[in-house]
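Thread title: Can someone regenerate the structure for this chain?

I was given the following input by a collaborator and told the matching structure tokens would be attached. They weren't. Posting the sequence so someone can regenerate them.
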Amino acid sequence: MVTRMKMAVIVMMMVALLSPQLSDAASVGRGWESREVPGKVWVCTGQPRAPGTTQTSTSDQMAAFLRLFAYLNGRNNRDQRLPMGVPVSIEARPAPDGGKELSACFFLPESVQSNPPTPTEPLVYLSTRPALTILTRRFGGFATDEDTWENEARALRRLLSAEGQQTRTDLQYWNAYDPPYKFWNRHNEVWLVKA
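Best answer:
Regenerated them for you:
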């Protein structure tokens, strides 16, 4: 029997390198760049925190990943299998309790962007992200917890603030581009939305 963790590793090993076509850097600052992200459809699921906690657990993250992978594996109204793209993107918004409301999302391939299959799992939904101007920077390592992402977002905000750049405070995206078996030269990005 395949455990959930083994399944996740197998899945990530089969990742097709499909991603939204980002523009080349529109402008570059000291340690950051600005890019245009086109409006596209993503498949998403909430990533809730247990009551009384400030962060999602590893098991909550894995459950969200497996719900999204099930959609790609045919748990949709067409029983259609879809390739997995990059990045795996977490949409982070402020929660009323001071924490974060997180939604995990997979990019859908261009072949289904105009008419994606509908999820059959009630916790999975399609989300059309609007075109955005993002301010970002790349960083390495395994970004597996909210503290890592928040620290990177704060560091990016400091760089941007020093150069007079303003970003929205109600939305950010945490993006991981690499499968878990890649150990060196990992590619992660925090996307802050230009105000």
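The mean pLDDT is 87.
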